[in-house]
Design brief:
single chain; Pnp Oxidase, Chain A; seven-stranded antiparallel β-sheet; 4 helices
Length: 202
């Protein structure tokens, strides 16, 4: 099968996000200039550079109470900071609950019953139970083609890791089993790993 996206695919559901999988989930916490808290997951998310460490996520829809975007991007525009909370398998239901198109005054921490913890380098809350949190300062917001597509880039200025996720000095994903997004309504979880040496490495 071949199709041009501009012509449509003719299938019951869009296959695009089922092809680009699995995708890590950036569970983004922000605080508005008015002090309101927000927590929402984004599966267009990844690390993009080592030095300095940088991440990005993309928001691709709008809410009626935010005009051209969603709460996360709106808050980041106001404050210039955000926190990425890593999603473990154990937190899957809370993550899913926080994905709703809730009113901008809704605090998803309270909605899901998640404990907040303060960030160290930015004015923002983080998910206390997350295996890791990345405190980020905004570097740029890029408007992509499409009415509501914004890519948000941030420099990681603080890193939290749960002590029990460190095994012999390695941050071991098998201690918490990260959740990843597949296509449609599907997710997957990391329960095994293997290593490959690059050419020339011993």
């Amino acid at each position: 099968m071949f199709y041009r996206p501009e012509d449509g695919h003719g299938l019951p559901h869009n296959p695009f996000n089922a092809i680009v999988t699995p995708r890590p989930i950036g569970w983004i916490s922000t605080r508005g200039a008015d002090g309101s808290e927000n927590l929402a997951p984004y599966s267009f998310f990844n690390a993009v550079a080592y030095v300095p460490p940088q991440v990005m996520f993309a928001s691709t829809s709008t809410k009626p109470d935010r005009v051209d975007t969603k709460d996360s991007v709106a808050n980041i525009r106001e404050t210039g900071v955000f926190c990425v909370n890593i999603v473990s398998y154990a937190l899957r239901d809370a993550m899913n609950q926080s994905s709703g198109a809730w009113d901008k005054d809704t605090d998803e921490f309270e909605l899901t019953g998640l404990e907040k913890a303060p960030c160290e380098t930015i004015a923002c809350s983080r998910v206390a139970a997350a295996p890791a949190n990345l405190e980020c300062k905004l570097t740029q917001i890029v408007q992509l083609p499409g009415d509501a597509n914004f890519a948000v880039f941030g420099e990681v200025v603080g890193v939290h890791m749960q002590d029990d996720c460190l095994v012999d000095g390695i941050f071991d994903v098998l201690t918490y089993n990260p959740l990843s997004r597949m296509g449609y309504r599907d997710y997957t979880v990391v329960r095994e790993k293997f290593a490959l040496n690059r050419p020339g490495q011993s």
